[in-house]
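Any chance you could type out some protein's one-letter sequence along with its backbone structure tokens so I can compare the two?
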Amino acid sequence: VCAQARPLRPHAELADVDFLPNWMGVLQPVIGNLTLLDIAVPGTHDTLTYDLSGTVADGANDIPPAIAWVLHEFHDLVPGKFIRLQGQTQGINITQQLDAGVRFLDFRTMYTAPPDDPSTDKHNWYGLHFVMTNHLAVEYWTQVRNWVDAHPTEIVVIWISRHGDECAVGNDQYPDISIEIKRAMWESFYNLFADLLVDFRVSNTNTTSINTLLARKQRVVAYVADYGNVTGGSPYAQSSCDYLENDTGNDITDEQKNIVRLVGLARNASAYKAALKARGRYLLQSLAGDSTDPQVRWAAVEKLVHFNNKKLLAECVTSYHIPNMTGDWCPRTLEDCGLLTNYYNQLLLDAIITQQLDFPNAYYLDAVTADGLIRTGTSLITDDPHATTGYAYTDTLALYNIRIGCARYPGPACAPLEALVATRRAAHPLQRWSDPSTGRLADWPVMPTGST
């Protein structure tokens, strides 16, 4: 049963609509009869890292729990600010991300002592990316709840894990955390969102239309890692292992091979998504940037010793394998790595639109801006004319959704909505320039064409 789509605003009013915070509602006349597994939404990678402290979390990712305990216990002796900069991927807060059109949140969390307290103090759930957030996880969830309440036409997908591993369970997911503590975390989340969560006993992401989810007021989809231990089999969430198909293969260090692979995935995504949809699996694809070991070594020496080691700089530059990337620059932080990655991500996003390929159900990536862009330039504050250049992230996925919806359900809403979003996209188009010193090239990589 499909609920009736709300009528389209008169065309003259569309240009004045507050589009990004309400894009699903604006597009409802053309996407309302689709399911969440038919459309594509913008996501953020490591959503909470805009608010990291300088303290390593108990149970931090990528190191043994005992080492995490030592680094937390003696946090005053650890270069926390440097570590934070190597963990931060986002520059705007969670409310701003949602206002910018983001509808997939990569929510990473761990049970740990507070940032400024010893590991023996009372623990609670905080956000995580090696170092922990300044505030409790429930505080960020509350911000999401408040935002969803204020935007009744929008649906948000939340994935809860420790470090983006959809299938790890037990101590591999949350080291040394009891089932009782995990259940208490889920109870906190459930109590906050209960009346908004998709109830999978009556709704499904692959068969229930967006119109129907809105009519049922089920507007928050929860995927949970270690689902059995965390939720106890709750019908208000799904196991990320069973229902998320997570592609994490983005690789800026071999971008020519990478872009061929990513365009190939987009070329075959329609059939792949159809097969996954039949099983209720949500296709998620990471376009996140990543540091290299030489990048971390060079950045550490420069930041902590205040010495620009030319040998380490050369190793850092070489590790990215970008032609003619020479000079005095290499990414200093993880967010810098994300900006460089986004410069090449825009090629993929644009190719999908211009070649009429297909998006996954969600991308999640770094450095999303408050105006719904991905930053592709070099910095927020610099004399570089391309410092804050960005590409229309949310609008590009919105345009794709309009085309998908109108291909299945043609109607009078299609032309004015496509015109609106195409005009918005045109304000922040694909922009390439030649600056080999910062790894931005105008004629590389060679974009694949035809079948792959």
The first helix runs from residue 11 to 14. The longest strand covers residues 104-112. The radius of gyration is 22 Å.
